[in-house]
Specification:
This protein has 172 residues and is α+β, with helices and mostly antiparallel strands. It has three helices and six strands.
Length: 172
């Protein structure tokens, strides 16, 4: 037996039970074109690129928050030890943490209150707390913490006043 193939498809025992293929039937069994596949891949690539950018931004934000927290903890540590082992002295000091990743500068200067304090023994001053204030010497303490892998990327500046009570009989 010989199969004869014409323009409508195979005939004979292999074509039993199958309707003959016509050009209109062939066009109804359509797949994806190359252009549609390329557009789908392009949209997928754009979506994945945006997702990666969002995740990368989140990772950088977490790293920056961690660095800022460390800088604040180092600053707090410096303030906690300030004046604990010796009397505050006006001047500037510097230092580093983590092999230079965090750099700090501490400036201590005398502070004059904007309102003149009453003199000791002033009869118009009966408040004992105010008399204790007169005995204190105020210092302005400015701590500047800088950090960043490639130079001073970020800066934390903390400014406060510290009181020092000189021993009795010692003039400042």
């Amino acid at each position: 037996m010989r199969l004869v193939q014409d323009s409508c498809g195979p005939t004979g025992p292999a074509a039993v039970g199958r309707p003959p293929r016509t050009p209109s039937a062939r066009s109804s069994q359509r797949g994806y074109t190359l252009l549609e596949v390329l557009v789908a891949f392009a949209l997928l690539a754009i979506g994945l690129g945006l997702l990666l950018a969002i995740l990368s931004g989140g990772v950088h934000a977490v790293a920056n928050a961690s660095d800022s927290t460390k800088a604040a903890l180092y600053a707090e540590s410096l303030f906690d030890t300030l004046g604990a082992d010796q009397r505050l002295q006006p001047g500037r000091s510097t230092g580093v943490y983590e092999n230079g990743r965090y750099r700090w500068t501490l400036d201590i200067t005398p502070f004059k209150p904007p309102v003149a304090a009453p003199a000791r023994g002033d009869p118009n001053t009966t408040d004992p707390n105010l008399q204790n204030f007169v005995d204190n010497v105020l210092y302005r303490v400015v701590l500047q913490m800088q950090w960043g892998a490639r130079g001073p990327g970020q800066t934390l500046r903390v400014e406060t006043l510290r009181a020092y009570s000189p021993p009795q009989g010692l003039q400042q």
